[in-house]
Design brief:
With about 475 residues, the protein is mainly alpha-helical. Helix content is about 45%, strand content about 5%. The protein folds into two domains: about 1-35, no CATH class; about 40-470, Serine Threonine Protein Phosphatase 5, Tetratricopeptide repeat, CATH 1.25.40.390. It starts with a strand and ends with a helix.
Length: about 475
């Protein structure tokens, strides 16, 4: 029996994309037959596109970057009554707004995982429909996304990695269907992630280019490699996972492979002198990013204090004094590109403009949500290397490319970790990575938080529906 696949959400998100409109024209309404879609290479392309877009809805354009996770990393001043992230920043998991956010994260992540599992359930059955390297790309990307999303779920719903390897955390779901999957512990989830990534690395090794092309006759599926879970994204995620698991040797190995690839040049300062198409997210350094058509609408209500008064009540900001402290403005940080060009001020408050879409017409720059950056590989390598001199060199390479002076004074283990922490705060502002950084290191309390934290404060509770219907 043919099973229907509902794609209304995907096509609403991509209403401006000709390919999606043509796809829907095959059948009346918004329903297509699953086996019909998975009978062509183009159908698999559309299914992968849908998976990437699903990762935006309530997730990587929202709770997992700019809102919930960034509030928990204390990126914003949230203490005013009625602030939409007030309870999130207090880790008040019983508050209705926080419970709703967590339920959305859980539900939407597993929906997106279900999408890639559906692709993986079909891809080996019809290998003959693919031309050239396309089978490798589709299957490799799907495996990589499955590992990526499960690992982020682990970072939220699992215990601190240092003291919870055998504690049940999340289900690692590998099939498309409604059956209940048992919970896996941290060690098991990491092993399953790495197993998927090992296979993805082998498959994606056939295509290691990082390109951005446009125009007629270009394969749209490989048009902008940074917006696909590419070969180098696999290695970068391995570096992230191995560091989380405490395996610094492997973390260093994979981080250096990405660094030494030469595929991801640091942003050129000249971009900020342009009147249009400023590269505010440093896109040349994106190892993996999502391109999400709704980014401007989401950003304008979150990161604008000047101008339209309707934005101001919802804007995420810090006092300028706090922002200046985070960027070490009094001790040379005023030249930092991340501060100089991406932090705006208004009446004593400061906020980020890195996601602004103003003046952007270049498709390479528009609607980009970075999920893995080149700079993170430098920070991972700097933390993982046993050589303090090498660690300082790695940190300095990023500092110089951000317009800062090199570190020349005494450099010991404490200073190494202090400098890496400073870099995470500045580099990943409003991107969600800071909370995960603090959790990995077991930082108690989180800097700039007034909450008395324990190890359990870092653990998201399972949604009520998962406890009830999953028999947890």
């Amino acid at each position: 029996m043919k099973k229907p696949l509902y794609i209304l959400l995907i096509c609403l998100l991509t209403a401006g994309l000709t390919s999606c409109k043509k796809w829907l024209d095959v059948k009346p309404g918004t329903q297509v037959l699953q086996d019909e879609m998975f009978s062509t290479e183009a159908g698999f392309n559309q299914a992968m596109l849908g998976s990437y877009l699903q990762m935006g809805t309530g997730l990587y354009a929202d709770n997992l970057t700019m809102t919930t996770i960034s509030a928990m990393g204390q990126n914003y001043q949230t203490t005013s009554t009625g602030h939409p992230l007030l309870e999130h920043a207090k880790y008040n998991y019983a508050a209705p707004a926080v419970k709703s956010a967590i339920a959305t994260i859980w539900s939407n992540m597993y929906k997106a995982i279900g999408g890639v599992n559906n692709i993986l359930d079909h891809v080996d059955q019809v290998k003959g429909v693919f031309l050239g390297k396309h089978y490798n790309l589709v299957k490799g990307e799907a495996l990589g996304l499955r590992a990526y999303m499960h690992f982020d779920l682990l970072r939220m719903f699992g215990p601190m990695p240092a003291n919870g390897g055998l504690v049940n955390a999340i289900p690692y779901i590998k099939t498309f269907g409604k059956q209940v999957t048992p919970l896996s512990n941290t060690t098991q989830v990491i092993e399953l992630c790495l197993k998927d990534l090992d296979e993805a690395e082998q498959l994606l090794s056939v295509y290691q280019n990082i390109i951005h092309n446009s125009g007629e006759g270009v394969d749209e599926f490989t048009n902008y490699t940074r917006n696909h879970f590419n070969y180098w994204a696999v290695k970068a995620l391995k570096a992230r996972i191995y560091l989380y698991a405490g395996n610094k040797v492997k973390a260093l190995q994979y981080a250096k492979e990405v660094i030494n690839s030469g595929k991801f040049p640091f942003v050129d300062r000249s971009t900020f002198n342009l009147t249009a198409n400023q590269d505010r997210t440093f896109s040349t350094e994106h190892v993996f990013a999502l391109n999400l058509p709704l980014t401007k609408a989401l950003v304008d209500v979150r990161f604008r204090l000047d101008g339209n008064t309707t934005f101001q009540a919802q804007t995420f900001y810090l006092t300028s004094a706090t922002m200046n402290t985070l960027f070490d403005v009094a001790t040379g940080g005023s030249t930092d590109y991340r501060y100089l060009y991406n932090i705006k001020t208004s009446n004593g408050y400061s906020y980020s403009s890195k996601f602004w879409q103003d003046g952007i017409t270049n498709l390479q720059l528009s609607n980009q949500i970075p999920l893995i950056r080149l700079s993170e590989m430098y920070y991972i390598a700097a933390e993982a290397t046993p050589d303090l001199t090498e660690a300082r060199t790695l940190i300095n390479e990023v500092r110089v490319k951000r317009g800062l002076a090199v570190l020349t004074s005494t450099f010991d283990e404490n200073i190494r970790m202090q400098e890496i922490a400073k870099e995470y705060i500045k580099e990943f502002y409003a991107e969600g990575q800071l909370f995960f950084y603090y959790k990995r290191l077991g930082t108690l309390p989180v800097p700039r938080s007034a909450v008395t934290m324990t190890a359990q404060t870092y653990v998201f509770p399972l949604p009520d529906t998962e406890i009830e219907f999953g028999n947890r």
